[in-house]
């Protein structure tokens, strides 16, 4: 899959079939939509293109907002690559794009820049200034500009609409299992390992501290997870919280992972965490001894969970 950041270096593509959306989380509904575009392009001899954005509108319209993304751009690219799209275009969602009228987005980007022949969107997709554009807008301009509009209905699982908003809601509520069902995959966090305070090592449970994009939604709690770096995959206990266990409360949540049985060094490496099951909430401990005892129980619980995964 060729990836373009912006449109300036994009060359003319053969009969573009475009899947359009923010695709935050690349959940089951997104997967269905992108696969439909890929299938049409393959059958028609066209080029499958995923057109997406590096931010969601709320981030741009409210610069103080944090913790709203399900996937950073790099992870989104990796997930979409697995769906066999030929081209991915990542547009910078900024104030200019946010203020663009729907008809100008269609004319200047979809038609002039991409040469659109077919467009796939979700049934409630909105775009343009004030989110004024929608499916009907796309259809109204389709005859004028000579493209087809294909709409994917909302997907439901166990009576719940599959949407990025619903998945965020579930993760904030601690319902990891329900969120994973809508994602269709484990919930993943990726970050570079940085130097921490070394408390875990003192407690005989050394942890890798991750530097995570502050825009990502971090589901608070202690989790059983798989930790991957390079070709290595190990069971892990992941702590996501404010380190309130000993009365310390930083401004932003921290992420630490204890890799079971691991003896090496991870500083500077990229660690991928696949959260599989929530073990417990973060809670306060009066001293290091009680905390170490609880971590030992967490490690044992994670080992039992991951043994069957």
Describe this protein with a few key phrases.
single chain, 309 residues, alpha/beta, Rossmann fold, Elongation Factor Tu (Ef-tu), domain 3, 10 helices, 32% helix
Describe the secondary-structure layout.
Blueprint (H helix, E strand, L loop, with lengths): L1 E4 L10 E5 L7 H17 L2 E7 L3 H5 L11 H9 L5 E5 L3 H4 L3 H12 L4 E5 L12 H11 L2 E5 L3 E2 L2 E2 L2 H9 L3 H8 L3 E8 L4 H4 L5 E4 L9 E9 L2 E10 L12 E6 L10 E11 L7 H20 L2
Parallel strand pairs: 1-4, 2-3, 2-5, 3-4, 5-6
Antiparallel strand pairs: 7-8, 9-10, 9-14, 10-13, 11-12, 11-14, 12-13
Helix pairs in contact: 5-6, 7-8
Short summary of the structure?
The chain is of the alpha/beta class and 309 residues long. The chain is 32% helix and 27% strand.
* Radius of gyration over C-alpha positions, nearest whole angstrom: 22 Å
What is the helix fraction of residues, given as a range? 25-40%
Strand content: 25-35%
Query: For the residues shown, what is the average pLDDT?
Result: 90
Query: CATH H-level name of the largest domain... which superfamily?
Result: HUPs
Number of strands: 14
Q: How many structural domains does the protein architecture include?
A: 2
Query: Could you state the order of secondary-structure elements as H and E?
Result: EEHEHHEHHEHEEEHHEHEEEEEH
Q: Could you give a short account of the major beta sheet?
A: 6 strands, parallel
Counting helices, strands and paired strands, the structural category is: alpha/beta
Query: In the CATH hierarchy, what is the class of the largest domain?
Result: Alpha Beta
């Amino acid at each position: 899959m060729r990836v373009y950041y912006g449109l300036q270096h994009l060359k003319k593509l053969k009969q573009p079939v475009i899947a359009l959306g923010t695709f935050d989380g690349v959940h089951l509904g997104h997967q269905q939509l992108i696969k439909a575009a890929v299938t049409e392009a393959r059958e028609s001899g066209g080029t499958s293109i995923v057109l997406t954005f590096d931010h969601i509108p709320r981030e741009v319209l409210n610069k103080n907002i944090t913790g709203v993304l399900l996937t950073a751009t790099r992870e989104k690219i990796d997930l979409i690559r697995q769906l066999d799209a030929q081209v991915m275009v990542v547009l910078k969602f900024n104030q200019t794009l946010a203020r663009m009228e729907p008809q100008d987005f269609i004319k200047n980007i979809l038609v002039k820049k991409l040469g659109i022949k077919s467009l796939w969107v979700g049934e409630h997709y909105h775009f343009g200034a004030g989110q004024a554009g929608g499916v009907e807008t796309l259809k109204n301009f389709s005859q004028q500009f000579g493209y087809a509009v294909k709409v994917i209905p909302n997907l439901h699982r166990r009576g719940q609409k599959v949407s990025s908003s619903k998945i965020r809601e579930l993760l904030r509520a601690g319902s990891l299992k329900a969120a994973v069902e809508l994602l269709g995959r484990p919930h993943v966090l990726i970050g570079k390992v940085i130097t921490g305070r070394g408390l875990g090592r003192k407690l005989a449970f050394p942890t890798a501290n991750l530097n995570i994009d502050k825009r990502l939604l971090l589901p608070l709690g202690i989790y059983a997870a798989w930790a991957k770096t390079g070709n290595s995959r190990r069971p892990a206990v992941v702590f996501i919280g404010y380190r309130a266990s000993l009365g310390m409360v930083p401004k932003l949540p921290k992420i630490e992972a204890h890799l079971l049985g691991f003896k090496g060094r991870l500083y500077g490496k990229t660690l991928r965490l696949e959260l599989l099951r929530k073990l417990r909430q973060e809670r306060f401990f009066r001293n290091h001894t009680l905390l170490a005892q609880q971590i030992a129980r967490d490690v044992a619980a994670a080992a039992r969970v991951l043994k069957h995964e």
